[in-house]
Q: What sequence folds into this?
């Protein structure tokens, strides 16, 4: 386990678990935390033993309550890293799959952090909100942009324009989260999903993630189906792992991935 000032990192069997540790501030983030987390997210793809990342909050009350406004009032400083809130939200081509394990409140930037992850597993105590309009702000760090992509425009707009709170059961019903688990089972549930991802070929997962997101920005379905738009497509089909996957299937054994 690695201990930062504002996070802990634990890596086991290809899964890196990042826990935000500012429990006294409901895991709200101030400038130093944003920059430290940015450095961590920079480092994770370089770690050969990491195939998938889980992000969660310390304690049971909050995943992340957004920007630390108390710190802003105390210091007069409001700053995030160039990579966005939590050092992650502005990244649009992160190579590793990232799962949010939302253990409590995900408010403002905290909700945006969950939305920036590839999918969300929620505790039954989890709640989500973009309350920025209630204090004269707008959720410009990814909330307004990503929520409609996640749940559709009409559903997203009633959440965005009212700043209301979405509980875990509603989040599941509208497709915002993939599974809801009892609080005490959240990390085991997220770990099960992460293990399923980690069992797949790393290059194939990276390609699949890239194509899924990049295809959104293409002008038509016919363009999205043209694999020449995706640099990783031919690489993954020609990879050693593609050959290994076929061989393992025929030989009825688990594949041995190399990431090549």
A:
């Amino acid at each position: 386990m690695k201990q930062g000032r504002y996070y802990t990192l634990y890596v086991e069997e290809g899964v890196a678990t990042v826990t935000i540790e500012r429990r006294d501030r409901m895991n709200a983030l101030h400038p130093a935390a944003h920059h430290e987390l940015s450095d961590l997210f920079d480092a994770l793809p370089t770690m050969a033993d990491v195939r998938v990342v889980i992000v969660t909050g310390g304690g049971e009350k909050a995943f992340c309550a957004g920007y630390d406004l108390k710190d802003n009032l105390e210091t007069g400083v409001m700053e995030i890293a160039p990579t966005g809130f939590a050092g992650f939200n502005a990244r649009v081509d992160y190579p590793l799959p990232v799962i949010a394990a939302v253990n409590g409140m995900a408010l403002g930037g905290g909700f945006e952090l969950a939305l920036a992850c590839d999918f969300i597993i929620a505790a039954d105590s989890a709640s989500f909100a973009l309350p920025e309009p209630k204090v004269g702000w707008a959720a410009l760090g990814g909330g307004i942009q990503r929520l409609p992509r996640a749940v559709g425009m009409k559903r997203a707009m009633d959440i965005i324009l009212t700043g209301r709170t979405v509980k875990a059961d509603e989040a599941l019903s509208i497709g915002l989260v993939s599974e809801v688990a009892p609080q005490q089972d959240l990390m085991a549930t997220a770990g099960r999903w992460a293990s399923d991802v980690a069992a797949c070929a790393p290059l194939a997962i990276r390609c699949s993630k890239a194509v899924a997101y990049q295809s959104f920005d293409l002008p038509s379905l016919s363009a999205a189906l043209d694999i020449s738009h995706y640099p990783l497509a031919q690489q993954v089909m020609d990879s050693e792992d593609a050959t290994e996957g076929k061989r393992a299937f025929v030989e009825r054994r688990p594949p041995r991935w190399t990431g090549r």
